[in-house]
Amino acid sequence: MTESVPVRCPVCRRDHLFAAPVYPCPCGAPLAAPLLRAARPEPITHRTWTDDWVTVRCPECDRQDQWPQPELGCPCGTVLRVPVRPVGTRSPSAPVEGPSRLRRPWHIPLPRTAVAARPSFRPVTIRTARDAVTAAALYLRWLGFRDVIQPEVRPVSGIDLRGPGIVAQVDPTTRPANLRAVECLWLNGLNSSSASVFFSLAGYADDARARADQLGVPLFVMDLTGCPQPINAPADELVSTGV
Q1: What is the mean pLDDT of residues 140-147?
Q2: Is the pLDDT of residue 222 over 70?
Q3: Cα separation, 203 vs 77, whole angstroms
Q4: Residue 100: partners with Cβ closer than 8 Å, 6 or more residues away
Q5: Strand extents, DSSP E, the chain
Q6: How do residues 123-136 score in pLDDT, each as one tens digit?
Q7: For a Cys-Cys bond, which of 3, 20, 66, 129 suits 32, CB 3.0-4.6 Å?
Q8: What is the mean pLDDT of the chain?
Q9: How far is 202 from 45, CA to CA, in rounded Å?
Q10: Residue 220 and residue 60: Cα distance in Å, rounded?
């Protein structure tokens, strides 16, 4: 079972229970970064690709690889970096496994807000800005939007994804998405009679978040695992109901 740790946002003081995403190791074993329970999460105000990756050792094959640093999108708009135990250390509460101990099978639950009939979302790791757009497109298709496409060259409008009844913008930069970006996306959706959805890697400015709530624009925060997290009520509703 994936380890969950309590995480408190240092900005709004909201408490969360967070579990690191699970990925398949090349050996086939499901693997999650071991979280450091006693460490304080840090708000991400500036991104570097070096800081966004951590070394994780597979307990099955002993292989060490670089995995995305676990991140949590708080509803207040802050994106938190959740610390990971360094390779070579063990959780004080973790049992020592002898050679004859049988490991229990892993189980990856659906997101708590997902519709029961919907299969689990299969993300793609984000390493480039293009990967972020691809991850958002996959997520929209998972929600039920069909024929979502991404242009080869980003248009002047800033719309990264289009499909029947949907337009979406993806901000892969290290700055929180601003008010103008949210309003421009909403206007594009209004002009084409489409729903508008925003995805951001670095969260949203306070005024952008407030305006999105007023306009009913779903806001999602993405981490490098490629798993979008809803951070406002319209986004929660979209995840719960789908298309």
Answers
A1: 90
A2: yes
A3: 5
A4: none
A5: 4-8, 15-19, 22-24, 30-32, 42-43, 53-57, 64-68, 71-73, 79-81, 161-163, 166-171, 195-200, 219-221, 229-230
A6: 888 988 889 999 99
A7: 20
A8: 80
A9: 8
A10: 34
> Of 75-79, 86-90, 113-117, 202-206, which gets the smallest average pLDDT?
113-117
Handedness of CA 103, 108, 112, 115 (dihedral sign): negative
- Whose CA is closest to 15, among 76, 84, 68? 76
For 45, residues 6+ apart whose C-beta sits below 8 A from its C-beta are none
Structure tokens at 118: 């919907």
What does CATH list as the number for 129-241? 3.40.1350.10
Task: Return all residues near 5 (Cβ < 8 A) that are at least 6 apart.
Answer: 17, 18, 19, 35, 36, 37, 82
- Tokens 């970064």: give the residue: 33
Contact indicator for 113, 230 with CB cutoff of 8 Å = yes
Under 8 Å CB-to-CB from 132, ≥6 apart: which residues? 126, 170, 172, 199, 201, 222, 226
Residue 81 pairs in a beta bridge with 42, 71
Q: Which amino acid is at 222?
A: M
For residues 142 and 134, is the Cβ–Cβ distance under 8 A? no
CB contact set of 25 (below 8 Å; sequence gap of 6+) = 31, 58, 60, 61, 63, 65
The two tokens of residue 181 are 């970006």
137 in helix, strand or coil? helix
Query: How far, in Å, CA of 109 to CA of 221, rounded?
Result: 20
Phi, psi of 33 (to 5 degrees): -65, 130
Domain boundary assignment for the chain? 4-81, 129-241
